[in-house]
Design a protein that fits this description.
This protein is α+β, with helices and mostly antiparallel strands. The chain has 13 helices and 24 strands. Helix 1 (10-20) runs parallel beside helix 10 (292-299) and helix 7 (126-136) runs antiparallel to helix 8.
Amino acid sequence: MKVLVVGGGGREHALCWTIAGSPLVDKIWCAPGNAGIAQDAECVDINTNDIDKIVKFCIQKNVDLVVIGPEAPLVLGLADRLNEQGIKAFGPSAEAAMLEGSKGYMKDLCTRHNIPTAAYGRFSESGPAKAFIDVRGAPIVVKADGLAAGKGVIVCQTITEAHEAVDSMLTAAAFGNAGAEIVIEEFLEGVEASFFALVDGENALPLASAQDHKRVGDKDTGPNTGGMGAYSPAPAVTDEITNLVMDKIILPTVAGMKADGKPYHGVLYAGLMLTNQGPKLIEYNVRFGDPECQVLMTRLMSDLVPALIATCDGELKDFDLRWFDEAALTVVMASNGYPSAYEKGSVINGLEGAGKVAGTLIFHAGTGTGNNGEIVALGGRVLNVTANGSTIAEAQKRAYKAVDRIDWPGGFCRRDIGWQAI
């Protein structure tokens, strides 16, 4: 069969690497891809949000399955357009993608279907928002309602900080249209975890657990990012926790979406807080996490492609996936300055030597090819140095050994990925 993966980041490189290994796949493309993805798939110069061009390409090439990586094309309705043409699309409809496209919509769904989450309010004007903060107190969390590339969440330790966050979003438009409406919610205490499940509209299949590191600095300091590293499995997500999350959060969401006339197909990514009162939903994402996808794919023993097809076709009820017992850990290398302004075009050396570290893979994110064939940095998050090991500690040791072989003065990484588990 012929497969197109949409996206150009580390998540999509991991997906292309995994799908390319399936005996069911004869041809794989990636739009737009990157310098690393080009080793596993044929890259096509089409922007991820150019829905018309993607659909046209799929028709011309007789593509059988499209795996949509990022959230933006899902919210724009790419899956709907492909399904209209009879092309299987792994990813939810535009209506269902509002679980990530609008944090307010997601919170309202939780209220309607009794899904445990933080207390909240929705606001489009600063006065009522600040009054809500004054009543609730601090710490408190201020979120842009729409898509903000993982950066639209500000955890405020004081009321003053929270007021400033409101002004930055509603008055200064720090996140553009994504912050035209905001969600303010109580600060939850506990252990964060990432929970993934494949959903076919009615049934859900949990995947292996993972934990990411959102903050830019060591020991979880500094501003939020798209993710600076991840590991799997997450020790905090026990079998008991998995059952609770499925019963109290995932399955009620799947049933609620179906009842609302917006059946969900694709991977459902729940950001959780494991509190003393049990697991609570922080937010939903409607795609694989990045960089959690990288560690999941390296641990996956089963062929992913049949699972993707079963998800599209509503046939997950009796489906199962097998996972390697080994742990996996990935370290994100980012351009200096990220998540704020960063320079593009710096040359990256040493990748070949880094890739020779035992048990290590390097997934590319924001990379391109320079005039002389060298690998250059083009994005904020640029490389995902990923390693397996018998334990998380061993995977961490291998990943950083590979990181230290990479010669890239224009980049940096956290040095403590996996510290909570270790």
